[in-house]
């Protein structure tokens, strides 16, 4: 039954909206509040294991669930090389405003956690921050360009950024190399969130694997230092990797989500 539901969902055509001249693919499941908004990671698409598990959970529980592919990802248009945090943030805000209503829980995976934190800032700036009922951040990678990548750049990579405007790096998650552009690094600095207190005004639950080769668990601890302590739960998974896609990880994600819903329920 579960496999049939996944295959049926994969075959369904996404809805498309245009954001800054690019077609963005969206899958929205109508349902009860609080709704769930999925924000994927760098080079990830909305049909991944974690997003699919949350969609099945939403179907079973009757909650709304919204997910999309950033430009240059999955079924959306645009070129990946032209992507920046600002662009992917604008697309995520457009999807949020077009497809959701009432309180929402943002679930951000890796880079998606950075996008989620910036969404909270922008929504509060726009006077719509009360709609964020909670944040679930999975292996969060806010400011990864400056905090995690720049200190590790080789001389050859720095030269490539200066002279070519980008460099490529092998990815164990895809047959295609990751492409990191000079614009991504410059724009990342402009979107930095680890520069002071991050006022989310909502409960936050962070899940972080301690065996994550891409985002060290200490980075999650750094994020916690920038969040109001009384609103934050950090769960460290000793043998968890970056994907957090094992059955036990997926169960923990669902449990954390249900815990957030219980905290914000009237």
Describe the structure concisely for a colleague.
The protein is α/β, with parallel strands linked by helices and 266 residues long. It is 39% helix and 23% strand.
Distance between the termini: 33 Å
- Our count of helices gives 9
CATH second-level architecture? 3-Layer(aba) Sandwich
- What amount of the residues lies in strands? 15-25%
Molecular shape: globular
Number of domains: 1
CATH superfamily: Alpha/Beta hydrolase fold, catalytic domain
Nearest-integer average pLDDT: 94
H/E order of the elements?
HEEEHEHEHEHHEEHEHEH
Low-confidence stretches: 1-10
Describe the 3D structure.
By secondary structure, the protein is α/β, with parallel strands linked by helices. It has a single domain, classed as 3-Layer(aba) Sandwich (Rossmann fold). It is built from 9 helices and 10 strands. It has an 8-stranded mixed beta sheet, sandwiched between helices. The chain has a two-stranded antiparallel ribbon with strand order 7-8. β1 and β2 form a beta hairpin. α3 packs across α4.
